[in-house]
Amino acid sequence: MKSVLVVGAHPDDETMLTGGILALLSSHGVGVHILCATRGEGGEMGDPPVCERSELGAVREQELYCAAEQLGATSVYILDYVDPLVGPGEELYPFEADFDTLVGEIRRVIHQVEAEVVLAHGTDGEYGHPAHQLVHEAAKAAVEQEGGEVLFYSFAAKVPGIDDHIWNDSNPAHLAVDIGPWLDAKAEAARCHVSQHGLFKRHHPGETFHQLVRGTEAVHRHIPPVEAGSPRDAFSDLLLAAGAWIPEFL
Ligand SMILES: [Zn+2]
Fold this sequence. Notes:
Blueprint: E1 3-8, H1 13-27, E2 31-38, H2 56-70, E3 75-81, H3 99-113, E4 117-120, H4 125-128, H5 130-146, E5 151-155, E6 157-158, E7 168-172, E8 175-178, H6 183-192, H7 197-203, H8 209-212, E9 216-223, H9 234-241
Parallel strand pairs: 1-2, 1-4, 2-3, 4-5, 6-7
Antiparallel strand pairs: 5-9, 8-9
Helix pairs in contact: 1-6, 2-6, 3-5
The structure holds zinc ion.
């Protein structure tokens, strides 16, 4: 296993949804490449604000580079889609994209980094975020078009027995990881996303960065589909060797 491409909609998704697994992979010598569709320019600006609205994209781009370094990532790719403003009442919107163009851009990065695995948002966009759902669909289509050479996994898969609003109910976890050994890296990556600290603290319990990042992460394999039991491939073998466990659904 040499190369994994993680595809997210906004800076911070890589950290908050799968940062422990990314740190695990990089600590095992796997090239971790981060592709982010937007600069998160429609998101929160911090409490108190860290910049003007017009500067937020540039600020969050730097926050993403900071987090990528903490997670041991090899490269970061940012597409030029524009994240729309969050609506009044916290309504969330997708970014505007021509779907086939977006799929083509993801495929170009798959080729560039020679990705063996694409790891992206889940079917439900975690908590129903339409931009996350759009990225899921585009990443899945990109892997389908690769025609069998690349595995497609999603993060934030549902782990039985742990209540969390970010789990994708449609994606039962095939593998779960207690990320204790990589929690320091994940907490430091969360610390990089300064503009989002107010949001993190509202949505996650805990005072310290170690408390507010999740200690359990999980993945679901979409391509090829898992017929029964757990997936067996180079990615799942690596996670299992690093202490991953197979959740039991009753
Ligand atoms: Zn996001």
